[in-house]
Amino acid sequence: MSKMIFVNLPVTDLKASMSFYEALGFVNNPHFTDDTAAGMVWSEAINVMLLTHDKWRTFTNRPIPPATSSEVMLAIACDSREAVDAMNEAAAANGGTADINATQDLGFMYSRSLADPDGHIWEPMWMDPQAIPRN
Question: Which residues form the VOC domain (predicted)?
Fold first, then answer.
């Protein structure tokens, strides 16, 4: 089996969260979706599992942090600067919050950050490896 990541996120409204992630470009995997969870695919290696709070609690008894806290920021690679901008615009138009942190533009790397409806932080980013300054 190839190396993959499954990011598990507790969500308050599963259907709304599915719609949000679909608007960002994720695709639902119906084999991992029911009334308590939804598998959302970003790439062959990256999957997000949206879990209702009740389902989340079957995995851990640690408290679900409030949407105003920051536990992790998930950077996700996009194909272009324009794709980064489009993802932030889609977030703002679909129940999320765009630009929760300052835009970073280093020339060879460009990123913006957004929060989903539950406050989970994502950082869409684009990088041109050929343009990275060399020492």
Answer: 3-127
- State the SS3 of 10-56: EECCHHHHHHHHHHHCCEEEHHHCCCCEEEEECCCCEEEEEEEHHHH
Q: Can you list the domains of the chain with their CATH numbers?
A: 1-59 (3.10.180.10), 70-135 (3.10.180.10)
How far is it, in rounded angstroms, from Cα 118 to Cα 3?
27
pLDDT digits (tens, 9 = 90+) for 109-119: 999 999 999 99
Collect all residues with Cβ–Cβ distance below 8 Å to 135 and sequence separation of at least 6.
none
pTM for this structure?
A: 0.90
